[in-house]
Structures are given as structure tokens and as C-alpha cells.
Amino acid sequence: MRVYLDNAATTPLDPEVIKEMCKVMENTYGNPSSIHAQGREARTLIERSRKTVANLLGTSPSEIFFTSSGTEADNMAIRCGIIDHNIKHAITSRIEHHAVIHTFEALEKAGSIKLSFVNVDAKGNIDYDHLETLLKDNERSFVSIMHANNEIGTLSDMEKIGDLCETYNAIYHCDTVQTMGHYKHDLSKLKAHFVVCSAHKLHGPKGVGFLHINHRIKIKPLIYGGAQERNMRGGTENIYGVVGLAKALEMAYAEMEQHREHIQGLKTYMKNQLVESIPGIEFNGETDPDKSLYTVLNVSFPEMEMADMLLFNLDIAGISASGGSACSSGSDIGSHVLTAIGTNPSRPSVRFSFSKYTTKDEIDFTVAKVKELCLVNA
């Protein structure tokens, strides 16, 4: 048996998405920038997909810009938002994705900004009082806080952050890569200037995402070279990817509640089974369903021999997962997220992440194998 529990890294393509993409690959080869019939056909598919995405998210198609990935969208929002608006101070957390943290660090190293980190607690929750203090003390900041952490699943309060940013005239960027297609987002009500999506996290294709740019803010392109995406991103559009993204998001919204109930049930079941099977087991991040991403369970195992081989041994046993321990020294390459929340570095941690395709039998198989490995290495 082979079990895939690394859906926070990427999800398998939905067969219906593959069908939609294959139709485009077989029949639509024109360049969307060309004015002839084949070009117009390709352009129609892109704009139809843009309208689908915008309608699902309660926004205007003019605010959706397709990119190659969530990472590109994060870079575009942060770099262009800061440089084009002459922002001198940025606020983020130490548990953000590297697409965010590394971009800020590069800007700080170049002397463009001063960077502040908002406090987080031992479960990865944002300290909103500290965030407000940072906003008060630094006029016109750029704030980047993700909706759900990709390693531990802890959710942030997007509405609260949006209200604070509005109060203190700050620009708000939110990486929603882990929650887009898993939670409903009404971008007409959300007080965020930038919101990011990556299709391959919701059973869509790799190599495509989008950046939502609220009409209240204007930026210049990150990538020059053509008039694509209404002069905002040079480069011939990934037509197949864009169509696949729109189809995946459409399906995610249509089936969201049933999938959420199914996945949350499996997460709770696995958590309970692990507690019963392995003494001393703990969980990183929030596990309260109202405060935690339902697709992610980060498990902290008791200290064991060859702890650094746990993921490898799980793979040999037929289980695909990810994670790692916190850094135990400055030279270690561990999880910056687990280090930031103060996880014990001597305890190995594994992130199990689920999808609509995960089954109870796969959870039972995984728990049995994990128990076996823990007993062998105790």
C-alpha cells in the first residue's frame, strides 16, 4: 500500500481538471495576444477563466492577474507594493512561507525597508496587540501575514488584520495559498490589498496561480516584456494552466462543505488514534477546528533513536509525508516554523496533510506503521 499524506506540498490533479486542460491542449494553440481567429479563441478561454475565478471570490475580473505560481504572486505583491508606494517599514511573522520572508529579507538587505516581526505564541497564533503596536509606531507599513500556516495549520484572522491595517493606513498582503479552495473568500468584503493563490494546492495544475490586486491600490509590473495581463505581467499566458486553475477552483467551491467534513473527520480520527497508540505524542500548532486548517496535522513524536531518519523510514514503509524538527543549532537546516514557535528540537516532527482523496483505511495503515516505527526506535 502507498499512502500520500503530503497534500500541503501539492495535490494530485482532479481527473475533471485534466479533461478540461487536455481539450485546450488538443484544440487551442493560438497565441492569446494574436488578433486572428486562433488567438481570439485562446484569449476567450483566458478571460472566461478570469471571470470564473472572480465570480467565485466576489470580485471583479479586472482585479485577477494570472501568474506562474504563488511564489511569483507573493514577490509581485511585496516588491511592487513596497517599491511603488515608497514603503519604508514592513511587518511579517517568523512563520511565513520563505516566498514571503526571503523577499522581505532581500529588500531589507538592499536598504529598502526596515523589517519587523510580529510576535507569535507557542501555537503560531498572531499577537494582535503587538501587531497594532508595530502599526502605531511605524507610519504606512506593509503587512504580510498568511491565512493558514503551511506547516502547522494555525489560522490567522484576516478580518481583524484587515481592520487594523485600514485603521493605520497600512498595505495588507495575505498569502492564502493553503486556504484558497478550502475556505470561501469574499474579496469584496476583505480589507486586503493583495491575495495570493497557487492552483496545485487545490487539485489544479502546477505552474499557475494568481494575484488579486484590490482596485484601491496600483502597482507596476514585476515582469516586463509584453502587454499580457493588462500590461501587468509580460510573457505569453499559460492557457492550459489558467483553464485548469479555474476548473479546479470551481469544483472546490461546489464541493467544499462535503470535502471539509470528510477531511476534518479524518484529521480528528488520526489525531485520536495517534494519542491512543503512542504515549507522549504532541501536536504542533492549533488543533481546535475553528483555529486550524483542516487539511494539516503536525505531529511531534517522543524522542527516539535515529529521529532524523523518521521521514525516510515512513517513505520506505509506504507513507509520503513531510516536516522535520526545529533547528537545534545555527548550522542546522530544520523547520523555521517549528523553531519560531519553540518546538523541542530533540523531538522529530512530521506534517501529515490530507485531501478529498484520503481514506480512513490509509489513516489506519499510517497509524499502524508510525506506531511500529516508534516502538522499534524507542
Structural class of the helix and strand makeup? Answer: alpha/beta
User: Can you list the strand order of the major beta sheet?
Assistant: 2-8-7-6-5-3-4
Mean pLDDT across residues: 95
- Based on Cα principal axes, name the global outline: globular
What is the succession of H and E elements?
EHHEHEHEHEHEEEHHHEEHEEHEH
User: Gyration radius, to the nearest Å?
Assistant: 21 Å
Biggest pleated sheet: 7 strands, mixed
The residue fraction in helices comes out at 25-40%
Strand content: 5-15%
Strand runs, count = 13
Count up the helices: 12
Unreliable spans are none
How widely separated are the two ends?
Answer: 25 Å
Task: Note down, in words, how this protein is organized.
This protein starts with a strand and ends with a helix. 40% of the residues lie in helices and 13% in strands. With 378 residues, it is α/β, with parallel strands linked by helices. α1 (15-27) packs antiparallel against α8. The chain has a seven-stranded mixed sheet with strand order 2-8-7-6-5-3-4, sandwiched between helices. It has a four-stranded antiparallel sheet with strand order 9-10-13-12, with helices on one face. A two-stranded parallel ribbon has the order 1-11. The chain contains twelve helices and 13 strands. The longest helix is centred in the last third of the chain and has 22 residues, at 256-277. It has helices at 15-27, 37-56, 70-84, 98-109, 128-137, 158-167, 228-231, 239-254, 256-277, 310-316, 336-340, 360-376, and strands spanning 3-4, 64-67, 89-92, 114-117, 142-144, 171-175, 194-198, 209-213, 282-284, 296-300, 319-320, 322-323, 349-353.
